[in-house]
Amino acid sequence: MGNNAIKVIISLSLIFTFGITYRESASASHAVNNLEDGKGALDEVLPALIVQVEDSLGNINTNSFTDDGTGDWSCQPDCPDLDVHIGETISFTVTAADPNDLPIEYKFVYWRLGAAFLAQDWSLDNTFDWYVSQADVGPHNGVGVYVRNNDGEEYQGVGSGDDYNYEFYSVHQATIYLPIIIK
Questions:
Q1: How far is C-alpha 92 from the geometric centre of its chain's CA atoms?
Q2: pLDDT-based confidence at 114, cuts 50/70/90?
Q3: Does residue 58 share a domain with residue 17?
Q4: What CATH number is attached to the domain comprising 162?
Q5: How far apart are CA 96 and CA 164, in angstroms?
């Protein structure tokens, strides 16, 4: 039996015998690939993880889809301020960790009415400024944060990196005050 046949049998038996998740099957596949490459015993896939995302309003999100399966604000229901208006600028700073001590890359997307739009592609910059615009108006819009190390694996799938979470807000029209002139 060739290496590819062994790989398929191992992957299928893991999936059907244990009912493992996508992440676990990706790890098993990575480990088998390392054995085939002669890199050693079953290596564990060690993804970069989000430690926290802090915004300029004082909200902190420590959730991580890879670590605990959740992504929206960890401070809820006690977040300082999740209501924003057109014209505001919200700054984000991401703290992430990589158990392999590899460089970490960051990607930011806008979440608008359930769809993601690239805001800043993968880079070493862990900060992002969101200039809230008309396109952002809605009850559950904001910014998605993605992290990855440069080990060639994307633990959450291609494009999603090793880990991600969301910073959602209720975005409102700008309040305009008109002067009242009394004569």
A1: 13
A2: confident
A3: no
A4: 2.60.40.1930
A5: 10
